[in-house]
Specification:
The complex is a heterodimer of chains A (230) and B (319). With 230 residues, chain A is of the alpha+beta class. Chain A has 4 helices and 11 strands, in the order ββββαβββββββααα. In chain A, the strands form 5 sheets. A 3-stranded antiparallel β-sheet of chain A has the order 4-1-5, with helices on one face. A two-stranded antiparallel ribbon of chain A has the order 2-3. Chain A has a two-stranded antiparallel ribbon with strand order 6-7. About 3% of the residues of chain A have low confidence. Chain B is α+β, with helices and mostly antiparallel strands. Helix content of chain B is 20%, strand content 30%. Chain B contains 7 helices and 15 strands. Chain B is flat. In chain B, 32% of the residues are buried. About 2% of the residues of chain B have low confidence. The chains are: A alpha+beta (230), B alpha+beta (319). The interface between A and B is large, with 45 and 49 residues.
Chain lengths: 230, 319
């Protein structure tokens, strides 16, 4: 009688195949229209939308826990409310969210570590030391504006940001006596130059809507004549 | 069996095949913990606690806010016989919902029987649940402040003294802001404070040793210093995304939190359960004879949300 062996595949339980990072909650990326920054894509600097995480954990920012063990958190109401408040929320997490099996270095909790796609995990001397694909991230942000997913910035927003960035330049210009201060001034200059040179990305034209009733944007001014009663 | 040569040395007894000598801090019969952040701002008065949702019928507390009354209203100048129209109010609601939070450990019967003095047990793990709750509450704060609508600071650029001045400028010009109502706080990651320290080294105003020392002094997490009316706190629980740290500056009215008191929960073993209704937490000890395992599990019900987007600004700078 021939006995056939079973293939034995042993896996270590010491977490060697897991990222040494604490488990965290998944998130959606959200953008508010006032958040823009000058970022480089190739040789050109563009105004790029700043995104922040909307953490999907019950109890945080009105996200509610899922009902059943297999359910994810309930966030539809929060997303709808934030969109009404002007936020742009990217719900297609397949575009930007990755997860890795992880084992917390301090807590030893096993779970998933969620991060943006441009965060490249690496382990150096047993510590989680990610690198970032800044160019790839900026290119993706540019695509979001050029595809119309994120509307381009309002000119007043850009002016406001540029004005805030110029503040250090004017202040440091009078203080640059030591080499360290001069280096700070040069850094401030390069930030302002990048902001001044930054282009607003080309966005598709918004769809035409019926009459210009003044429902969108600032209302039409009415001419006023004031006369004295005397 | 291993051979022990004369003279009997510690090296023979401790190393090689014998390893008789294993000193596990027998002189200190307590559990020693590794270094971990222990700061919490919960009792600082900076986060308004809205209340207990127990017996409310809802997992969400709805708060109503009004504008256009009191100092928010103004009389109009009208003629002697005019019949002016009446004023409107502005009203809005903000919700704060709870979530369920859980932490648990288990230990086999065999380990409980065999463990030595100073080794950790299920009762010890239960006693640390309140600290874990505080740490989770701070993590909830860090996740909530990352949702601030508008940021100061510049993505990809280190935190600078000018970013600090931007925070001062914003709140100075914010209508209705008053430090008397609870103060202005900036909560940043340790790296952001390191960058701030680098930045002020070149500031002429901070070249005197005493003030510079106060600003650059290494402190643990928690309170750092007061400068220009801003109370600064550090927590390395401040989150990161997009290559940046998501700190924030906010007033005590910007974020509010709720919990659900656990006094009404019917637990399986009331004699071994610890109910902490003021934290919305219940801790239960349990065991499974078939698996020969004991467990301690804590469930807590709490939530936090931003209520006024104008009273919080993200301080987002390079990680």
């Amino acid at each position: 009688m021939d006995f056939k062996p079973k293939t034995v595949q042993l896996t270590s339980s010491d977490g060697a195949d897991r990222l040494p990072a604490e488990p965290n909650a998944p998130f959606l990326l959200q953008h508010y229209p006032s958040n823009w920054f000058p970022g480089k894509v190739g040789d050109q600097v563009y105004w790029l939308p700043g995104f922040k995480p909307m953490v999907l954990a019950g109890g945080v920012g009105n996200v509610k826990p899922g009902r059943n063990p297999e359910d994810g958190p309930r966030y539809r109401e929060v997303v709808d409310q934030r969109r009404r408040d002007g936020w742009i929320i990217l719900e297609d997490t397949g575009e930007y969210l990755d997860s890795y099996d992880c084992l917390g270095p301090k807590t030893k909790r096993k779970g998933l570590y969620y991060c943006e796609r441009w965060e490249r995990p690496d382990v150096v001397a047993g510590k989680y030391t990610p690198t970032r694909d800044e160019e790839g991230y900026h290119r993706w942000l540019l695509d979001l504006v050029e595809s119309g997913t994120v509307p381009p910035p309002h000119p007043a927003t850009i002016e406001q940001i540029q004005s805030r960035l110029r503040g250090p330049l004017m202040r440091l210009a009078g203080l640059a006596e030591t080499p360290f201060q001069r280096a700070k001034l040069e850094q401030a200059k390069s930030i302002v130059e990048a902001a001044d040179a930054a282009q607003v990305p080309d966005a598709p034209a918004p769809p035409k809507r019926g009459s210009t009733s003044g429902r969108r944007g600032a209302p039409a001014a009415k001419s006023v004549r004031v006369e004295s009663a005397e | 069996m291993a051979s022990i040569d004369s003279p009997i040395t510690h090296a023979q007894m401790d190393g090689g095949a014998i390893q008789f000598r294993q000193a596990f801090a027998l002189l200190r019969q307590e559990i020693m913990l590794r270094l971990v952040e222990r700061a919490s701002l919960r009792t600082s008065g900076l986060f308004a606690f809205l209340g207990d949702l127990a017996r409310s019928g809802s997992d969400t507390l709805r708060s109503r806010y009004y504008d256009g009354i009191g100092f928010g209203a103004a009389f109009s100048s009208v003629s002697e016989t005019a019949t002016p129209s009446l004023s409107s109010l502005a009203a809005e609601v903000q919700d704060t919902a709870i979530g369920r939070w859980h932490l648990g450990y288990s230990q086999t019967y065999m380990d409980q029987v065999l463990r030595g003095i100073g080794e950790i047990g299920i009762e010890d793990l239960a006693s640390y649940m309140v600290d874990a709750w505080e740490g989770t509450w701070m993590a909830m704060v860090a996740s909530t402040i990352a949702g601030a609508a508008t940021d100061l600071g510049t993505s990809g650029v280190n935190y600078s003294f000018d970013d600090y001045l931007s925070v001062v400028a914003y709140f100075r010009t914010l209508d209705g802001f008053s430090p008397v109502d609870g103060g202005l706080v900036q909560l940043l990651h340790g790296q952001q404070f390191v960058d701030f320290g680098e930045a002020i080294r070149s500031e002429p105003s901070f070249q005197l040793p005493e003030p510079t020392n106060e600003l650059l002094k290494v402190r643990g997490p928690g309170y750092q210093f007061d400068l220009m009316g801003i109370t600064n706190y550090q927590s390395n629980r401040v989150t990161s995304s997009g290559g940046n740290r998501n700190g924030a500056a906010f007033t005590s009215q910007a974020m509010k939190w709720v919990l659900a008191g656990t006094a009404d929960i019917r637990v399986a073993n009331p004699a071994t359960a610890v109910v902490v209704p003021e934290l919305g937490m219940v801790i239960e000890l349990d065991s499974t004879s078939n698996g020969a395992t004991s467990s301690v599990e804590a469930n807590a019900f709490m939530g936090m949300a931003i209520h006024d987007a104008d009273q919080i600004r993200g301080v987002v700078t390079d990680a």
